[in-house]
């Protein structure tokens, strides 16, 4: 297992369509530019899309690791910059309902790469399935992506409430995505904390916003990260700013600062589910 601290961040978003995978990929790229060794785990285990988003062909997926056919290191594919990706399987419904043993096997696989990464970004599935809850609960940081639409706020609140009430997660970081102005981002966060402050005992922190930018759409069409394809775009600049903030987050002390914490908690969460 890793002998040095690894920052484990679960990127969640309640509903689909908020740009969560895009945020994960570009945040990873920007963190890599800062010299961090970053691995993305596509944890939408049955409907993985990170490889599609980046035009990567994956010969092996997380399913092969679960079957004991190969190691996690053998499954990893190079992404943009120096980011490495653990791809998920697309269209394998059973993978969205892993047993406790499968969860344990999956995470024990990380012992193989523990000394070779600084940040593990987990791109969770949309919704509030047991798998999403398990990954979010096991991470040290939960990053919630929201957009300025009522369903996004409602679903983000539902996810925060469930993680807080049933799994004891206390701290949540928030990114406002596809925002017209920085002021709109702050206003969106204010809407969210209006409900969380009223009904929950949680610590909410606003990380920042990513502007609505046509460069993102063009980058997606090219199957590239906007940070790489259009490095001077407004969105790319925003992602670099967000990465600097994320990079400054204090690493939890041992054992929370090690992958062991992630392993133990993911197994416990699997048993809980």
In short:
The protein is of the alpha/beta class. The protein contains 12 helices and 8 strands.
What do these coordinates show?
One of its GO terms (molecular function) is ATP hydrolysis activity. One of its GO terms (biological process) is negative regulation of cell division. This is Flagellar number regulator. This protein is of the alpha/beta class. The chain has a single domain (7-41, 115-272), classed as P-loop containing nucleotide triphosphate hydrolases (Rossmann fold, 3-Layer(aba) Sandwich). Helices cover 44% and strands 16% of the residues. It has twelve helices and eight strands. The chain has helices at 20-33, 50-53, 62-66, 72-75, 100-108, 130-138, 150-167, 182-199, 214-221, 226-229, 234-247, 259-272; strands at residues 7-12, 38-42, 77-78, 84-86, 119-123, 141-146, 171-179, 203-211. An eight-stranded mixed beta sheet has the order 3-4-2-5-1-6-7-8, sandwiched between helices. Strand 3 and strand 4 form a beta hairpin. The mean pLDDT is 85.
User: What's the helical proportion of residues?
Assistant: 40-55%
Major beta sheet, specifics? 8 strands, mixed
Backbone shape: globular
Can you count the helices? 12
Here the CATH topology equals Rossmann fold
In N-to-C order, the SSE pattern is EHEHHHEEHEHEHEHEHHHH
Q: Pairing-aware structural class of the strands and helices?
A: alpha/beta
Pfam families: ParA
Protein name: Flagellar number regulator
GO molecular function: ATP binding; ATP hydrolysis activity
Organism: Oleispira antarctica RB-8
